[in-house]
Amino acid sequence: MTLLKEPDFGTPARPGEATIDLTVDGVKVSVPPGTSVMRAAKHAGVDVPKLCATDNLEAFGSCRLCVVEIDGVRGTPASCTTPVADGMVVRTQNERLGKLRRGVMELYISDHPLDCLTCSANGDCELQDMAGVTGLREVRYGSGVEAGANHLDLPTDSSNPYFDFEASKCIACSRCVRACDEVQGTLALTIEGRGFDSKVAAGAGASFFDSDCVSCGACVQACPTATLQEKSVIELGMPTRSVVTTCAYCGVGCSFKAELRGDELVRMVPYKNGGANEGHSCVKGRFAFGYSSHPDRVLEPMMRDTIADEWRKVSWDEAISFTARRLREIQAEHGQGSIGAITSSRTTNEEVYAVQKMVRAVFGNNNVDTCARVCHSPTGYGLKQTFGESAGTQDFRSVEEADVILVIGANPTDGHPVFASRMKKRLRQGAKLIVADPRRIDLVRSPHIEAAHHLQLAPGTNVAVINAFAHVVVTEGLVDRSFVADRCEGFEQWEEFISRPEHSPEAAAEITGVPAEELRAAARLYATGGNAAIYYGLGVTEHSQGSTMVMGMANLAMATGNIGRRGVGVNPLRGQNNVQGSCDMGSFPHELPGYRHVSDDGVRDVYEQLWGTPLLNEPGLRIPNMFDAAIDGSFRALFVQGEDIAQSDPNTQHVFAALSSLELLVVQDLFVNETAKFAHVLLPGTSFLEKDGTFTNAERRINRVRPIMAPKTGKQEWQIICEIAQAMGYPMHYDSAAQIMDEIALTTPTFMGVSFRKLDEAGSIQWPCNLEHPDGTPIMHEDEFTRGKGRFMETVYVPTSERSTRRFPLILTTGRILSQYNVGAQTRRTANVAWHPEDVLELHPHDAEVRGISDGDMVALSSRVGRTNLRAKLSDRMPVGVCYTTFHHPVTGANVITTDNSDWATNCPEYKVTAVQVDLLTSPVAVESEREPVVAGGGL
Amino acid sequence: MSTLPSYVRLANDIAAQFAHRAPAEAATAVANHMKIAWDPRMKKALIAHVEAGAEDLDPVAALAAQQL
């Protein structure tokens, strides 16, 4: 494939029918009202010269290169800022216009370094292109010093790890500033000075690195010259070919053009036709791909007899035959249910499907679980109970039609930055925002955005808040009676339940710490403010009542009729790239692909016929149950696909004890991660740049993951699974990942119409994709819920058993930061460490002061289960009594602190509530000593 | 921190969600949840715990165990 250059229409598309007819250079064209002349010309096949215009930014009209003549219009208006009119006759090329454009170009070139041949943007420079297009042959003013005052001596800002700002090449078109404003919504850049002194600046005299810039890359992408340029392009040269693929970071699932020179990846450029991101990106997806070629990568299988031994490299044959033999031996000695596997949300649908098939058809049990257990398993449960489908209801674009946005337990600007940019755009347009979060996350107050309500609730009291919302809706006559009557069931019983005084805002205020009037006002806004959409994250699910809260949000959406159309809905922001997909693919121990229970004889029969083996009809072990069973001795061998449970799962001591108890631990990963330290076999995995398959994002969008290089390990991961299955005596074989998807489509009704071929044609598909919805389903539950009637569920608030005490007086909550991802295995191996070199403990200045702690001090963080040391960061974004840290660095090991408490329905850990104490560290304590494996409250 | 076996803690947690219902109704709801979500060895362990006296087990969870 050659380098993919997407067409640029100059200005954004306008919605509506193409009812305006005009003529451009003699070509008739019809476009929607509000379309610019420049865009209409492009539709007519006419490229109008331009520099300051690009079609993801509103027209600016500064460069004057796009001037045109219009019959009946005086002068030469800029085509980018001139809207079309019916019957308009436009000319884009004649001698007069050419002269004007050359005049403009002369001025630009007179103050521009003429180093085109050695410039990093040579061949990809719009200024260079326009010099050619306009026929520039001379610059009457001379160039550089001879032209007089100039900007050629301006210094280059190389502070950002990923791109340079070469100010001497800037033409002050403001595309970067506008991209930061309009696309990213950070407003970090500005034009400093006036007239000739105008120049792009990152904040008030700051370098890019020290500014508010979030390194999303939008400015780099927007720059028409080499002023903002990727360091990788400067170092390696312009790429020559592109492969469209999908980011392997968060659940937004951005599409990218991987741009290469030969087989070397030069840069990742967000793809305009990507359904999830539509041309935008964040610092991780855009720049943090270097881990894929990091020297820490394990590329050959390794084995050892005990975890005290050194690793030794072995052949694939030896690793696979050993793994298969030991799995069978352990089953023979300890029973069919003594082995199992954990799938990963970082792997493809096809790889996950292969693992769960291996467990069910080859291991002969249902002991398969996925890392979604520790993040969004309550979403699966709660939405299935209420709506009938374990998935979010909207596409991302839907937020553009929301009037009220309720963000609960999510921090989109850090966790889901590309979606956050969409959301912020809508908020800047006037949508109202309600944030329910103990922390004052950035969304609460940021440039041109201020939440109407910040409900700074006590950690662990989500259900009391959502019940109070519902109470207000029911008792103040705000129920959408028509919707409820037509579409739902169980309302009367729920209405009586939620109307009880214990659910009132006044009662909730006592529990949550949020004033009753604030709760009432927020509830009224949600119920009466127009289209109301809920977006939530792990601050909802990772609680002892995570599933209850999900059902509570579903209740609220149904009661107010905010479901089944654009601009509304209940939307989980998934943590990892393929959380949705790994759950869809039957990774849960009680569900076959498509969320169908293992006890369903009809569903099992489909697989039994196809796979030629009987399947168990009882649920298997979930991850926490596996740990308990390992310690008790009934679970002896575990296959872990691309997850680092030793770092990511709670109560590290308990996890260590479980992993140490296994007779066989097989880890498939890119690196020797924390879990691999307990492993006997390490099977090298493939990075997303090597994978062939699909990811499914938080909006149920199935995107293709295309390999840009052959697997560095020599095998795709699904091939390895097949070979283990074969070595265990089961004939499991696929010719390609596409063939696995064909099997998924054959057996899973929601994927019935999906194939690689269709994905390649359509770009992406949102499931359900079936006979009824052959092109997919952007918005779910439009006419009826998946289960028929939406079901109201009673949601009793039950306080968590994790309480602050005199010994542990603070509450710790955990989360993530923009530059790092999950356990950091990927991002720690990139330049992103420049922004977050270590996990820190954020705490309120009052809590710090009473402990004698100053900003930057090392502190000891201890809970009932463990202790670790980290640096304190004082922040009034935290309420008094609550502190916060991330879990990106193993040296900190935040999960040494977190407990075994979990969601009652799904066992999802209660990461968000841990009673802790923080002490100023006067003499360093060895963290490792606190992590010795101990059995803590486990046991089957 | 609790030293109860995890299945006892979890059973108590589930029972607490249905505590607003009448005991028999709540027990059925708890049992139904365990049937769809629990591995057989967890259910056997809970039944054995009940047979051994159900120490520290919510009465509704104990009733539910009898329906497994």
TrEMBL record, chain A:
Q: Which intervals hold domain 2Fe-2S ferredoxin-type? A: 18-96
Keywords associated with the record: 2Fe-2S, 4Fe-4S, Iron, Iron-sulfur, Metal-binding, Oxidoreductase, Repeat
Q: Name one GO cellular component term.
A: membrane
Q: Which residues form a coiled coil?
A: none
Which Pfam families does this chain map to? Answer: Fer2_4 (PF13510), Fer4_7 (PF12838), Molybdop_Fe4S4 (PF04879), Molybdopterin (PF00384), Molydop_binding (PF01568), NADH-G_4Fe-4S_3 (PF10588)
CDD domains per record: fer2, MopB_CT_Fdh-Nap-like, MopB_Formate-Dh-H
Q: Where is each 4Fe-4S Mo/W bis-MGD-type domain found?
A: 240-296
Q: Which SMART domains has this protein been placed in?
A: Molybdop_Fe4S4, NADH-G_4Fe-4S_3
Per its record, what are the GO molecular function terms? Answer: 2 iron, 2 sulfur cluster binding; 4 iron, 4 sulfur cluster binding; formate dehydrogenase (NAD+) activity; metal ion binding; molybdopterin cofactor binding; NADH dehydrogenase activity
Residue ranges occupied by any 4Fe-4S ferredoxin-type domain in the UniProt entry: 159-192, 205-233
Which residue intervals define the domain 4Fe-4S His(Cys)3-ligated-type in the entry? 96-135
Question: Gene3D superfamilies from the xrefs?
Answer: 2.40.40.20, 3.10.20.740, 3.30.70.20, 3.40.50.740, ADC-like domains, Dimethylsulfoxide Reductase, domain 2
Note the InterPro entries from the entry: 2Fe-2S_ferredoxin-like_sf, 2Fe-2S_ferredoxin-type, 4Fe4S_Fe-S-bd, 4Fe4S_Fe_S_CS, Asp_de-COase-like_dom_sf, Formate_Dh-H_N, Formate_DH_asu, MoPterin_dinucl-bd_dom
Its BP terms in the Gene Ontology are:
formate metabolic process; respiratory electron transport chain
Of which family is this protein a member? In the C-terminal section; belongs to the prokaryotic molybdopterin-containing oxidoreductase family.
- Protein name, please? Formate dehydrogenase major subunit
Automatic annotation (TrEMBL), chain B:
A Pfam family per the record: FdsD
In Swiss-Prot or TrEMBL terms, this protein is called Formate dehydrogenase subunit delta
Domain of life, per UniProt, equals Bacteria
